[in-house]
Each structure stands twice: as structure tokens, then as C-alpha cells.
Amino acid sequence: MQRRTARTVLDRLRTPHRLPKALKTASVCLLVAGLLSPLTQASAAPTEVTAAANDYCGGQCSDVLPPGENGNATLAQILLNQVAGTQPAHAEDQLGPYANLASGYSGLTDAKINTFFNDASFGVAADQVESTLNPGGRTDVTIVRDKKTGVPHITGTTRYATEYGAGYAAAQDRLWLMDVFRHMGRGQLTPFAGGDPSNQGLEQLFWRSAPYTEAELQAQIDSVTANNGARGQQALADVTAYVAGINAYIDASDSGRYFPGEYVLTGHKDAITNAGTIDHFKLTDLVALASVVGALFGSGGGGEVNNALSLLAAQSQYGVAQGTAVWESFRERNDPEAALTVHNGQSFPYGTKPAVAQGQALPTAGTVTQEPLVYDRTGSAATTTSTSSSAETSADAVSSAKLGMSNALVVSGSKTASGHPIAVFGPQTGYFAPQLLMLQEIQGPGLSARGASFAGLSFYVQIGRGQDYSWSATTSGQDIIDTYAVELCQDDYHYLYHGTCTAMDKVEQTNSWVPNTADPTAAGSYRMQVYRTKYGPVQYRATVGGKKVAYTTLRSSYMHETDSLIGFQMLNDPGYVSSPATFQSAVQNINYTFNWFYADSTHTAYYNSGNNPVRATGVDAEFPVWAQAAYEWQGWNPTTNTATYTPASAHPNSSDQDYYISWNNKLAKDYTMASWGDGSVHRGNLLDDRVKKLVAAGGVTRASLTKAMADAALTDLRAEDVLPDLLKVLNSQPITDTTAAAAVSKLSAWVTAGSKRTESVPGLKIYANSDAIRILDAWWPLLVKAEFEPGLGTSLYTAITTNLPIDESPSASHGPTGSHAGSAFQYGWWSYVDKDIRAVLGETVQGPLAQKYCGGGTLTGCRDILISTLKTAAGKTAAQVYPGDELCAAGNQWCADSIVQTMLGGIKHYSISWQNRPTYQQVVEYTSHR
After folding, report:
1. Overall pTM surpassing 0.90 (yes/no)
2. Rounded to an integer, what distance in angstroms lies between the CA atom of residue 332 and that of residue 528?
3. Which of 273, 380, 683, 918 has its CA 20 to 30 A from that of 43?
4. How many CB atoms lie within 10 A of CB 140?
5. Are 484 and 624 spatial neighbours (Cβ–Cβ below 8 Å)?
6. Are 151 and 145 in contact (CB under 8 A)?
7. What is the mean pLDDT of residues 784-811?
């Protein structure tokens, strides 16, 4: 049985994973020989670049972004990579240093940091200049690339020229990926890249959440421009210049025949005649790109119907009062044992449970059906594989378990050896080839920054550093999406809006595809259809209190995908950001749900962004509410989808706290997150425990803080924070069963050794404590089911697993992130197991579950269940626990965990050892300030 290797939506993208066998012959050499001459664009000879005078980091800013900066490859380079394994320049040169931290962090010193990271100082030393280019022949902008990583350093004498250069550099490094994403955001991926079921699933996912017309994409640009004064006008000028730079590269690479080879492999260009076109970009393409990024990383909420279904299951199992109490205990809205980012006792109430819920619209049991998206399937679109991909995508679209990832460790100067703050932080955006993010330095009038940006949106650095400050983000996930029950009238496509029967708006997208070299999926087609109301797109239909309803989802960032432009513009402006207060002011203009962190030479700061709607009094954001005026967001205007939002002071925020950690954990006291799982055990604890110890000892350095991150990145959360209590139960009496005793011995030794998933010898690809790791991986799902299903009942247990998956180990292809994705332990039942086991042991539990579950709540009964399931787990072979997939043989534990740079283009890379850390990461310590 094969394991699914693609659970994250981006993992499903089908581009050339393998070339057809017909190309893997000696004729490849002839084809490559004929294509070698246009491999690279012409560049001027290296010129001397002076050291940057505006850099206050003193050589102590570092960053890394695997696998490499160069994400474009010609057809010849793709063929050589597939056949001979060769890499284009700078396509893979950051992967090795990134991977090696896993085995090299224990001996890390400040002097060795750039063994594993890049020097992120401004500018390029004269002897490190690899190339200098004046894009489009312009004399007012220069793109310098360094020898080590090939990162573009863009310097312009005018604002327009600087942004033009940024667009040109982006296309140089990520044109194919940018094209994929603009088509994905428009719901048009299959006609562009091919009809593989994974491509079908991707375009369905994003078009379902943002089914915009061309006019609506343009309206979002117009809105930002009109509503933000001079900054809005500047943003329009910036993106216009940026798009001009992209298109200049398209024209140059087309005429020079060094455009990405994927255009040939997908049938858009002819390798021999150069016939075909690469479509120019337009401003609305950037809105489509932004909608993809926002949907993936910056929009919390949306699971209200699933919440309602699990509440109904709890009430059916226990009765209304007790069932509600049981549900609330598992929901952990404000668990007192949760790790917090703002841990100084400040309270920021949001999404709290009302005393008496108003307007609640819970469905009648058994009546909920998800709204179909795909119609009129033909050809390959009608296969079982295609329909299964659509079903999986539908489940993803309505879950509150959003992709979170990303972490941050920030320590105040009062706790460091130098007296200056130190930060180790970055976004954990997965692993792709080419990478979703790209690096750049941009210097021009009103612009001075270096860092990472999403491909196609790099007119501003989104995460990185300025002249004397650095900033980063993690996904926060507070609830900005609500579900409304619109009462139907006349038929299934009309609804009551303020008492008037109103027609739903239907938007459609018809896609068809034919086979191509990269994707031989047979021809097929289908039509996507979404019904929209003033309360957002229809997601479900049901009956509530005898009335037929449609459940819709209303997102505060819907129709506002570009509003965050202003905040990013401010972050790049050295004339705006100069302090914690100005930093917080800048990120307040970002409407997506992120945690933002800041460090300069003296101060640290934190702010949680997002347009948090002010809900009507008594509305419980956990559940659907009636689409009636009394329960709408306060100040809501359906025409513009704007509302009254909570003020900046109500968002979790702080300056100069002793330290900050974030790993998508709970932000602050009384601030409810949209997703489940913010309880006593969270992967944020892996950071909090380590940083707290460092801070208590004092004298924190860049190396020690980086080591804390790296150590957490290799630790199995279950083994460190839950397994010790499980062992207490098992060892509460002598273990007479030899199989169980042997398993306990191995697990205990692993815990003593540090609970790491690391190689016994670097490069050997065999884990130390491999048997213990195998046992726990096999045991966890068995023990969770045996511990909770008898007490909850099958229906409720299943319903809660829909709200929160039970596990997300590195190799758990059933988890939200999927296998080979690096990120792990974000979602799981570890807090439930922890609280229940501690309760059974008689220990104090703050915020306990409503009852004890393991073994009916008795220590003896619980021990019997643990021993029984442990024996079963110990008896499972490695091949059973790690069944194998297209990349790994059955039983290969290291490979099952390994990180793979998922191919979004034609270049493949080697797999690396598992690490649970940011994809793009900075290590910074500023020595001075302007």
C-alpha cells in the first residue's frame, strides 16, 4: 500500500516530476547540445560596489532560503538536471548549509553562524560581484548578483526604476512559478499546466475561496489606490513599474531564448522554432497571486459548520448541558496551560464565549451537504482519481486547520551578552523547487530593505531587514471568517436579505486541457460554479429549525486581497519605520492574520495583524449565525465588504517583553484562535521551554538562540512533553509482559537521550533510537483511539478528529501538512492525552477535560489500555509503520521523515534530513541605530 505524499495543497501541484521515457535517451545529448548557446542572458562585467553606508547591523545579520535563489531553468538545463543531475547556477547552493545545521548546531558559535546562513549585510563586496546588469538597457537601475548565492541587489536612482528592476529580477528568478500562481489564483491552472488531478484540486481550492471576476480584481487595485492617499498612489506606481520590469524580462528572454524550459514542456513554446507566446503580466495578475498567498497563510477561521456538527454529536452523546461542557473542554478556547506569545499577563479578549449566544443557526442533524463546485466533467476529469482529488480539496477548503507554520524567538537586550536584542525568526512556508519565496535587496528612493518576498509580489520585501531593524512574521490564525445561514426563498438560488427575496450571484469558470510533455493527463474539461450572496460564497446547504438555508462564509479580507500593500510599503521605507511604535503602526495596515516581530539595536516589539470584525453582541464566532441585520458585523457594508474592526490596542501587542516565542501557538490571554489545539502541549512549548531557560541564565548570544531553535526543530513533541507521563502510568506497577517491557525500555532511553529524531551518524540516514521512534509513531494513533473513543462514542470521536487531526508526525501523511514537508506537530491530540493522563495520575490539571477517559478514568484501566496498544505498536514492522511512497522504500524511516523540495518546475533536488524550522530564516543582532 502506497502512502499519500501530498497533503498540503501546494504539494499537489503537478509540473515536470519526471520526463517521459522517450526523452531519456541518447537523443537528449543532441537536443541539449543544440540548446546550449542561449542558456544565459548577457551581463556586464563585474564592477566595483562600495560597502553600504546605511547598514547598522555590523555584519551580524544573516539569512538563508533553500534550495537556492535561481528558480528558472532553460529547457537544456532541465534536461541535464533530469538526466545527469546537474544544477543550474545558484539553484541549490543554500540547501546544503540549511540542511547541515541539523548535525552541526551543537558546536555552533557566533563566528560559525554563516557556515549555515548567508551574510545578509547590505551591498556586495567588490570581489564578490558575480554580475552586473542594467535591465532593459536602463541606466537608472542596476541589478548586482553576488558570487555565493546569486541574490539580486537592486539599486535605482528613481523609484520607478527601482521597482522596474525588482520586477525584472523577480522574473529572472521565478518567472515560471509566478505564471503558475497567477493561473492558480484565477482558477485556470489546468489549461495552463495540464489536467493532472493535483492541478485540478489546486485550482478548485483557490477559486472556491476567491472566485473573482476580472472586474473585481481590478476593483481591489482601485480601492487601495483611492483609499490610501499618497501612499495608495505610490503603491499603484510601484506595482505598475514592477509589472513593466517583469514584461521586459519576458520579452528579453523570449527573443534571447533563455526563458524557462517549462514553457516548452507544457506546450506554450516550441523548442526549435520558438513559436508560441509567454503572456505579459498585468496588474490584476498580482491580485490573483496575492489571493493565493492570503488563502494559504493569512486567513484564520471558517470551520463553523464542522464545529456545529461536533457540538451536535456531543449533545447527542451526553445531553445538551453535559455535551456542551464536553465540547468546550476539547475546544480549549482559552486554556490556562497554553503557551503564550504575550506572556506578561495582558488580556486581549477576542472570540470569547458569550454568556448567552444570540442568533445561533445550528443545522438539523443529518441535513448538511457541501455545495458542489465542479460540474459537467468530461474525459479525464470524470475519472475516480479526479473526483477524489476534488473531494479532498473540498474538505481542505472548509477546515479551520489552516497552514500555520513559521516560528520566532526574540530576546530583549536586557537578557543578552551584548545588551542588544537578538532574533532568530522566519516563515515556515514549506519546501518547493523553486521556492515560493525569493531573496532580494532593494535600494532606491523611499526603499531600503533586504529579505524574502513571495514570487510575483516582490515589489516590496515582505519579511527581512531594513537599515537598522529586522522584522518577521508567523501565521496567527485568529478568526476573521464567519459562517452565515441565509434563509432560502422562492428556490435554492434566492435568499432573504433584510426581508427581501434576493437572487444569488452565479460565477462560473470552464476549464479544458490536453496532454503535454510535462503532464500526459488525457484531455478533459469541467465547469466550476460558485453561488455568491452578500454574506459571501455558498459553502453548504442544510435545514435549520425547519427552514432551508445556505451556509455562506464571509472573510474580512474577501475583496481586499491587496489592502496589505500599504503596510509592506511602510516596512520598506526607512523614513517611516524607526522604532517599535512606527513598526507596529506599519503592520497595522496588513489585513491578513499574522504575528509580526521586530528587533533593532535597543528594542523588540510584537503586533498581531488582521482585520478583526467587531461582531454583534452575543454572537458566538464558533458557530453559524443567522444572516439577519441583528447578527451582522458592526458597521458592515456588503457592497465594499468593510466593517468596524477591533482597534489596534485590542490586538495582542507588546514592546520589550523579556522574550517572545511563536510557533503558531496561542497569542495572549483571552484571545481565542480559530483552529483547535491550543492547550497544555503545543509545539510552541518546544521553543518556550528552551528560551525561558536561556533568558533565566542570561548572556544570550546569536549562537545560543539559534541552537535553541535548532534543538527544538529536531525534537518529537509527543516524546518530550507527553511520553514521560505515559511512562509514569506504565511504570505505576511492574511490567511483566516482555514485549511491553522491552518497548518501555526503548522509549525511556529515547526520552533520556533528548527525544530527537536525528541520525546516529550524520549522513548515515539511520536514526538513533530508531526502534523507539518507530514504536511511538505506531503507538500514538492506537493509544489515542483506545483512550478516547470508548468514552466519547464513535460519532463524537470521529467528529472531533475532523476538527483536530490526532497526529502530525514528520512522516504522518494523514496529517494536515503531509509527508516530506518538514513542518510537524502543529495539529494533534497531544494536549488532550496530556491532560487526561495527568488527571488519571491524580495530578493537578488547569483547564481539565470534562471527564477522565483513559480506562474509564482509573489508573489500572488506563494502564491496561496503554500496555495493550503498546504491545500492538511494538509488533508493527518498520514497513508497516512507514509503508513507502514514490520516493521512499517501505520501512525506510529516515526517508519517510525526510524533507523533499517538491517540484513546481523542472529542476529536482536531493532530500534532506528532517528539521522542523522556518524555510526562510534570519539571525540578527544590530549593533547601532540611526
Report:
1. yes
2. 37
3. 273
4. 15
5. yes
6. yes
7. 96
